[in-house]
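Saturday, quiet lab. Running sequence design on the structure tokens for the scaffold JK sent over.
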């Protein structure tokens, strides 16, 4: 798939002398085009208020949900895949110039603040931090929203202090996205791959090559992490889409089977009946 890359410009979000903003947004799945990807000229901290889905970083998916807090590097190529009706978020946008020299004095044993250095090398696994919020972070972001809206005396200095506090709180409680074991990351990617490619024949060799494992190792790893084998999950995904087409379209059953990745019609009938206790024709007559 050819991807479209868009860069959000600082001038569209920041006043000329004040490189900081707090925004609020509600996104739906329709807002996030599959081929669209984004970078920024500024840093972003996102808090998920409602909904769930995935953030894609260089096409690697990482689950997000209500309470997720994400620090995103400007150069990270990202988008959201929304799996709920809506994804409601707060965004704190800032340029490093807003923090001035204060950022240089921040140090920690886990190298959280290395992401801000000029020598930081972009890698998909380290281009952002992802963690769950806590009471202090939630309260602080709420205060920042109110301060930004009210713009009382010395609000710029106050917001700078609050942003530094937020970064320190995130540093203290953070785990880099690499806190997930490599096995869990591989399993997440496999499930994502199946959901995006369920219409096509599955070649385990190709999938294994994408994650740099042998086919046998990949299959055993996925079963260990998820408790299910890859073919079972793929069939579940295909059947879910077939169910929707049976009840929401006038397509012939043979067409639905092919549309959902079942090239063997008899296998589709057997698999469907095992799952739903009706064959596809019976299900369509009863519920379509």
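Result came back. Writing it out in full:
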């Amino acid at each position: 798939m050819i991807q479209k890359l868009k860069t959000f410009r600082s001038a569209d979000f920041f006043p000329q002398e004040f490189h900081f903003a707090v925004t609020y947004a509600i996104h739906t799945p329709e807002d996030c085009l599959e081929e669209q990807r984004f970078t920024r000229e500024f840093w972003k901290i996102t808090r998920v208020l409602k909904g769930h889905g995935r953030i894609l970083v260089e096409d690697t998916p990482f689950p997000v949900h209500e309470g997720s807090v994400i620090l995103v590097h400007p150069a990270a190529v990202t988008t959201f895949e929304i799996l709920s009706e809506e994804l409601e978020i707060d965004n704190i946008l800032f340029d490093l110039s807003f923090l001035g020299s204060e950022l240089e004095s921040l140090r920690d044993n886990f190298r959280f603040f290395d992401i801000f250095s000029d020598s930081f090398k972009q890698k998909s696994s380290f281009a952002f931090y992802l963690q769950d919020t806590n009471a202090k972070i939630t309260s602080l972001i709420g205060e920042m929203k109110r301060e930004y809206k009210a713009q009382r005396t010395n609000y710029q200095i106050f917001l700078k202090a609050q942003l530094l506090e937020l970064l320190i709180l995130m540093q203290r409680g953070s785990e880099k996205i690499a806190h997930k074991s490599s096995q869990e990351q591989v399993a997440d990617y496999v499930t994502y791959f199946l959901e995006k490619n369920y219409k096509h024949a599955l070649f385990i060799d190709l999938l294994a090559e994408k994650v740099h494992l042998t086919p046998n190792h990949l299959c055993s790893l996925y079963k260990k992490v998820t408790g299910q084998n890859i073919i079972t999950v793929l069939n579940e995904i295909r059947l879910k889409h077939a169910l929707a087409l049976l009840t929401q379209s006038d397509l012939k059953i043979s067409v639905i089977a092919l549309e959902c990745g079942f090239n063997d019609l008899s296998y589709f009938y057997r698999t469907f009946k095992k799952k739903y206790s009706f064959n596809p024709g019976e299900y369509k007559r009863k519920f379509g």
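Notes for JK: The beta strands are 4-8, 20-27, 36-40, 43-50, 53-57, 60-64, 68-72, 78-82, 87-94, 128-132. The longest helix spans residues 155-173. Ask whether to fix the surface positions before the next round.
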